[in-house]
User: Fold these one by one.
Assistant:
Number 1:
Amino acid sequence: MIGSCLAGGSAPRALRLFRDMLAGGTAEMDGVVLVVVLRACATLGHLALGGSLHAVAERRGLQGDDIFVANSLVDMYARCLDLRSARKVFELIVHKNVVSWNSMLSGIVHAGHCAEVLELVGSSSLLKGGDNLSFDETTLVVVLQLCKKLEGGEAMLCRSVHAAAVRRLWFSSSSLPLLNALLDAYAKCGLLEHALQLFRRMPEKNVVTWGTVIAGCTHNGRPHEAMAYSVAMRETGETPNSITMLSILEACANCAETRASRCAHGVAVRSGVSFERDVGNALVDMYGKCGDLDAARRVFNAMPSKDVLTWNSMIGALGMNGRAPDALSLLDRMEREDDVMPNSVTMLAVLSACAHGGLVEEGMACFERITATYSLQPQVEHLSCIVDMLARAGDLKGAAKIIQERMSSTTGSLAAAWSALLSACRSHSDCEVGRDAASHVLELEPGNSAGYLLSMSVPDGETAARTWRLMRERGVKVTGGHSVVQVGQEAHRNQMMSELLLGNLVSAVLLDKMVNGTILY
């Protein structure tokens, strides 16, 4: 009965039955009952009761003699985030089996202690089968979870897991969870080509497989391929779930293609997920990035429930499309109609709208409300928006003054704020403030080519020449950008020739100075 309650998803009822069993005094607790109850404690995060059961198991000698009890104790402590106790129990197990390792490894990965997992895997030669150890598909899935959590990914570990799966011939339909995890790990480690090769060779695919490859293409800067895979998915008859739908909508938003976005919306409606809040938020964001504010507003108004992300998406859509007064009105409506309080992202969207809409007074008032009304701490992103707003309005010295006043109280790099000011100095031909802003930008981000390009655009030949020499000395490479132009129903991408533009920019500035009798370079 206790096991049935737990299997049916009612862990609290399982624990109540266990207490009734102890209170009745007619049944003795054995290792089987202990394993089930420890699993219930792990499900509920009930560390205190799990520790008491550990003491009972120790007194009755169950921990040392019963490998199932010992493994359950490791799993319980690990899932309750008491890794110190889990590691102690794990080390006391004389003959560890694959479940022992899986319990310990999954608990450490869940707690985010990646270095400890690498130490365990490396010391035991687990993936190579050393120390007479074996592993199963669950072990490899746990290691792949580690690959995704490591900063920058762990490409070599992904390949090792792939090789281990090949050696065990785990490429059948029964190994689909492992293959999906490997596909996801490759994509998150930036090895998208490896992921696509694996995807093509997979003997069977389910909705998780398709969703993983679509998300991988989207997050690796290839949204058009993601959209192509979404079409191929529908041709196979597979219906996308809400998670897959979010990746499809994100790809459409990144491409900013109106026709594809409307098709994706239709797929969401036919799949029955369009009224889920997360999908609705993604639809509002997608239509906003496509410039279709009427569609974004229709989705927003039709949503049965809204959270702060919903409001942020709609305010951001209005702001990025030049509707600053509407964005401010929506902020007021948010405060009146909903229990959701604006957060720092909300205020960032409002400040960005004011900056692009030229609403200086309204923007400054919103900046003051961040602390006074909402008790939030202004971040460097908020400061950058205020600087951009003042600079666009021509108040360059006022913008520089705000940066200097807030330098000590603002967390994070101020490079974005100085860059916004530097860009405005170019537009307003202010060399004095521009030279100061350029020095700060190059000091804060010496490896970013954008700062050098902005510095050389200031109408000051001496600054341009010095920046050009500094860029060559540091070996900074220019990152090419692109623009997207909507023609009819299709978006056309135009790659910018940054190196050529850079050369022309420097030549133009120097030529202007040479004509005036000044030779700088």
Note: Residues 483 and 494 are 5 Å apart (CA to CA).
Number 2:
Amino acid sequence: MASPTEILLAVLPLIAIAYLMVIQYWPATRAMPVAWVTAVGVGVVGWQMTPRWIAAATINGFITAASILWIVFGAILLLYTLKQTGAFDAINAGFASVSEDRRVQVVLLVFLLGSFIEAAAGFGTPAAVVGPLLVGLGFPPLAAVVVALTGNLMAITFGAVGTPLIIGLQDVFETTDIATPAGTSVPEWVAQIGVWAATFHVTIGVLLPFIGVAMMTRFFGEERSIKPALEVLPLTLFAWFTFAVPYWLTAYFIGPVFPGLIGSMSGMVFTVGALKAGFFHPDDDWDFAPQETWPTHWVGDIKPGETSPREGTIAADGGVVTERMPLWKAWMPYVLLAALLVLTRVWTPLTDFLTSTLVLAWDDILGTGLDNDLSLLYLPGAAFVFVHLLTIPLQDMKPGEIKDAWVETGEKVMPAVIALLFAVATVQIMIQSGKAAGIDSMLTILSDATANFAGGVYPFFAALVGAFGAFLAGSNTVSDILFGTFQYNVAQNLGVSRTILVGSQAVGGAIGNLIAVHNVVAALAVVGLVGEEGRVIRLELIPLAYYAVATGLLTMLFVFVIFPGVF
């Protein structure tokens, strides 16, 4: 058993992150480099890590971070491409035409469209995209941010085409010496973890669409009640069902890349179809009180109802004529993306080509035995960029629009570069510290101490640990990188299912996104309400508490009662 001094040293990098970001409100771009320096100091003092091992672990982390950044870059580039062409205006108008009821719009735009954007792009983009769409429809900006952050939680674990599980767990586990179920590779085992994460989400997420609507009617409705939300409960359950069934089946039969995409597309098709056929629509449309009665903190620099359609041709009278893009054309880039991702994962000759071409590999990094690589063509970032190039002629992008899409993408991605590089490098130092010294690593010592302290009730808190990581780092992926190995070791020490406990971690990483400072700031910024972070986080604690407690109870039930024999 580790000494108190060893435990204190091992936890110092995490304390540095928590103190700087939570207490001092430092951005991750400043806090993560300090955490890395702290981890280096701890590695030298407590684990006798040599400069060679520190450099190798850091390089290993940078390579993994580059993989994440490549996906982020491509996803955001396609997102801003569609904003420039007016495709998102068309998609939004398509949903708005289905119903003028704000409750229905929350189900369609927040739960379904938001989940689709999360599944395709991830990294905080749904709230940053859906929020302005809701404001354009006439939602109070503060309400738009609150509901936009709440609604896509089920998709986050599989966001950016499975990045949290593939990069956050699979790539990390492949650099460690952990055991997997007999006859199962690390990717196959991570796919099993994804199934358990989907099982948690499907069970607990049954109320998620309803919670989004209830948050709106209770805190932003004229009557300040959840009663109007109860009137659309059948619709929220139907939307959940048409999302959840294909979502879980996809996780089970295909893997962690497509559950969010297929689930959200299925939900959109069936829910919109049912509404247009006359099912589930409330008798009376619900709306907000008149704008002049709204509190001042609900509205910032952007007024509800304002839109920014794509600039059109100049009419004879000198006015601007705007023509809405056909809905099929607006959706086509994401249809192409889904098809391309499926093709590159199921057609073996293409998969083999992509995984062996333009691969930047570094084996035996600095003679330490660490290996890592950056597969530029196989990672989803390449698919996003390729579809961006196809969209240029497909949606007739002008040179100025192409430039603006790239500039906006750079502005969005750059703050994440330093944060991700040093966050992943910090974790790698904590993981590799044991290998460097031939003793237990920092994370192993922390897991032992946590298991000894919490004892048999630890599984209840596993998701909260994941949520804490996402709150600190603003990313489910980084939370999985920070705590995936930690959760594995705790489960092993307790003698409970490692698969289920790591699955709970993957769900917890999604929960923490509700209050992740980065996400909240980004969502408020795009609706002109920067400065209201405290109000938003306080409200988001409500769905967070529900989801975290329910996940904790379900984890305890799974590992001790229903599935105690799972690896």
Note: Residues 20 and 26 are 5 Å apart (CA to CA).
